[in-house]
What we know:
Blueprint: E1 2-3, H1 25-36, E2 55-58, H2 65-78, E3 82-87, H3 91-101, E4 107-113, H4 118-127, H5 135-142, H6 149-166, E5 172-176, H7 184-190
Parallel strand pairs: 1-2, 2-3, 3-4, 4-5
Amino acid sequence: MLSLTGDSIDVGDHKEAKPVFDLDSVQLLRMAREMESGRDMSGNELNGVPRFCLGASVHPEADFIEPQLVKFEKKVAAGAQFFQTQGIFDIASLRRFMQYASQFKVRILAGIIVLASARMARYMNDNVPGIIVSQPTIDELADVEKGKGLRKGIEIAARLIRTIKEEELCQGVHIMAVGNEGIVPDILEASELASMPG
């Protein structure tokens, strides 16, 4: 179960939806752990006991990393067993984060977003909370011939995955192909991804 606070309604595609703030991601993790003990949030006994593998998100490329690290620790304390990162475009940020995260007994999956064009990269920077596409990545996408942006995006994603694997930075990756899910096998082949460490 991946516990997320989620993005603001105004950046989503269901503008008529109403925001709900009953629980944040840390409280949701605590609630799930409580359910595993056989009780609901009010302390009532459950008829049966669920078992979860609890996950949460983290943003290693945040402009100010300290609040992310504080929230990361709170999520670990609340029961998170694995984390998916926001999209990673700066491998140095992931390296720094993993130096910190390696002291905790949790699994980290690096988020790999496949970009189809420089325009898509700029759009994500401007409109998608938590995404920071580096300028070198945007420039690399901008330099390709028209119609070959997705191929370049696959190449960039595969390169990131290979680096993560070769350096054994984390336990896996979460590939986000954003409407192009059919290309995931191409990414796996290009990244020579057979297995990840751990």
